Amino acid sequence: FKDNFLFFWVRISNSNYFYFLHFGRLFDTWSTLLTLFPNFLSLCWILVSVFPSAGCDSGFGLALASRLSEAGLKVFAGVLDENGAGARRLREQGSQNLQVLQLDVTDDGQIETAHRHVHSQLHNTGLWGLVNNAGVLHCPADAELHPMAAYRLCVDVNFLSAVKMSQVFLPLLRRSRGRIVNMSSMAGDVAMPMLAAYGASKAALSVFSRVMRLELSVWGVTVVTIQPAGFRTSSADAARYRDEIVSAASSEAREDYGMAYISSLPGRLSQMSRQSAEDLSPVVDAVCHALLAARPKALYTPGRMGWFLPFLQRCCPARVFDAVIMAPVQNSYKLQSIKDH
């Protein structure tokens, strides 16, 4: 879930028109193609690396890898276990252009190994794009009840891995005046109850992305932030989080919140998954546009409420917005515990 990637490149030489039509499979509208075409003409090689959240065998990683390989692009997909089920699924879905590589984005050694491999494939042409898409949600819970291990995991995977990846690959990106695409979340912009660990790590990534956009502009490197909202990226075994949350909670927290409420928290993960959109194409479209458009946006907000809730937060009085954002998470167990006080 935290440590996969893919690379692709396409040669633009004497067959620009062919690739112009071929890339039509990546996007839905001719207007997008007309925007992208001038960019293709200015490039010799395009190479993109993507580190998906739920692994290339599910979520954004699988959707993006599938679209790129179907378009005939050269794809290198990194997985936590190159011999695991996810890797096998990639090989089955991919064409001869797809290769599976081993990578854990929290392992500095594996990142350096990946860098050496990518560098050896570029032949001094530079790296066109890097997509930092690693992410982990853990389990929705009150900030007080989140185990410290959950905070550390979210920061390591959602934020620090993007920092490390950017630092390692930036020399190659500078050479090509390429692009970095960071996969953040609406939860990194809007304070969402029950998502303190996840939201804080994504907020750090969003700020990092904006700072890098300013700093790297002098090198001609473009940095883009994607903030999806409400997409189902993977299935998770919610029950496995219960013991971790219960054991990490203090005796006072167990008494104040009540064991019934604490035990109900893992079920919220399944509820969130059921309420999320299964169609990931808006996010994949946004990533492709960010990588290949002549003039990409600084921020993409695909998904339901992706732009509306941040807008509402900035326009509404805090008391009004708090009432709106808290309404879906009211819980009778917690309310009863509060009433007892």
UniProtKB/TrEMBL annotation:
<protein>
    <submittedName>
        <fullName>Hydroxysteroid (17-beta) dehydrogenase 2</fullName>
    </submittedName>
</protein>
<dbReference type="InterPro" id="IPR036291">
    <property type="entry name" value="NAD(P)-bd_dom_sf"/>
</dbReference>
<dbReference type="GO" id="GO:0008202">
    <property type="term" value="P:steroid metabolic process"/>
</dbReference>
<dbReference type="Pfam" id="PF00106">
    <property type="entry name" value="adh_short"/>
</dbReference>
<comment type="similarity">
    <text>Belongs to the short-chain dehydrogenases/reductases (SDR) family.</text>
</comment>
<keyword id="KW-0560">Oxidoreductase</keyword>
<dbReference type="GO" id="GO:0016491">
    <property type="term" value="F:oxidoreductase activity"/>
</dbReference>
<dbReference type="InterPro" id="IPR002347">
    <property type="entry name" value="SDR_fam"/>
</dbReference>
<dbReference type="InterPro" id="IPR020904">
    <property type="entry name" value="Sc_DH/Rdtase_CS"/>
</dbReference>
